[in-house]
Specification:
nine-stranded antiparallel sheet; 122 residues; mainly beta
Length: 122
């Protein structure tokens, strides 16, 4: 038997070694991202979390600043070579690109954290 589709679920976030980060609309909604906000990664007790960094009334560029992929889209992109390479290296991934799923959101200190399921990259 041959399966035509190996996976049926679209990954939530993709990191590329060249610095490109692709974020699905589901993650954008869960983190309440707006254009100009940044994302960050936190490792704590063997878990990996994705969180948003707000930049209200801030002027200038920030690391891993998010923006829509095209006008009217809820899918976002970000750029950060440093963040991508650190994420892939910490997860011991040698490929140029890795996609991950996120779990259920958690509230900590008034911030939303999304656990990244990094032990099973797509």
């Amino acid at each position: 038997m041959i399966k035509l589709l190996e996976r049926t679920r679209r990954p939530d976030i993709t990191f590329c070694r060249n610095g490109r980060i692709f974020i699905t609309a589901r993650v954008v909604r869960l983190l309440s991202l707006r254009p100009g906000d940044s994302i960050n990664i936190a490792f704590h007790l063997g878990e990996c979390y994705l969180l948003a960094a707000r930049h209200d009334n801030a002027i200038g560029r920030h690391i891993a600043q998010c923006y829509p992929t095209k006008k009217g889209s809820r899918n976002y992109c970000a750029n950060s070579v440093m963040l991508c390479r650190l994420m892939l290296d910490n997860c011991r991934i040698r490929e140029q690109r890795a996609s991950f799923m996120v779990g259920k959101e958690e509230m900590r200190n008034g911030e939303v954290y999304l656990p990244i399921i990094y032990k099973m990259p797509l």
